[in-house]
Write a structure and sequence with these properties.
Invertase/methylesterase_inhib; about 180 residues; single chain; Plant invertase/pectin methylesterase inhibitor protein; globular; signal
Length: about 180
């Protein structure tokens, strides 16, 4: 290699290492080997592979601290809950099932409301934040119970409930790291 090629490679490495994305990736553990934040959250999660998948989204990589990370995960969870509710309403309308109606109208309305409240209190009272984020976990379980009581087996609904429960778990893990918790 000639000296200009070596100089160009060296300059490129310096620019890459100083980029904001690289700095955030290192802070959050998204760069090579995983750093402390993502490593701690995912190491303590029930599904390390899914945790790393969720925490590698572009929305997460922009977070600079636990508060931003909590907000980003809650926004992802809220989006999934809204999509899930629409999916459940479609199923309920087609099947006319009481169990699916309970899931769509009652359970997932509560999940969406709880996630919205959680987002509203990210900058506010830590006790209210913790409560609002943690009660969301009750509703997918209640949906599972309504499905079982009505003898409905639907793997897609079960998968949705598991996904919302897992996102709740990640939210808990990040809000517990916030100051005053």
């Amino acid at each position: 290699m000639n000296s200009s090629t070596i100089c160009s490679l060296f300059l490129g490495l310096i620019l890459i290492s100083q980029s904001p994305f690289a700095a955030n990736a290192t802070l959050l553990g998204l760069g090579g080997g995983g750093g402390p934040l993502v490593s701690l959250i995912c190491a303590a999660s029930s599904n390390k592979v899914e945790c790393n998948k969720v925490l590698s989204s572009p929305q997460i990589t922009q977070a600079k601290n636990y508060k931003q990370l909590s907000k980003a995960i809650t926004e992802i969870a809220m989006k999934k809950a809204v999509e899930g509710q629409a999916f459940l309403k479609g199923l309920a309308q087609k099947s006319k099932s009481e169990g699916l109606n309970i899931c769509a109208d009652s359970c997932y309305s509560s999940v969406v409301r709880d996630f919205k409240s959680c987002l509203d209190f990210i900058d506010g009272d830590p006790d209210t934040l913790s409560y609002d984020c943690k009660v969301a976990v009750d509703e997918p379980t209640r949906c599972d119970s309504a499905m079982a009581a009505n003898h409905i087996v639907n793997p897609a609904v079960t998968a949705l409930n598991r996904q919302i429960l897992f996102l709740c778990e990640l939210i808990f893990k990040t809000i517990d790291k916030l100051p005053n918790h």
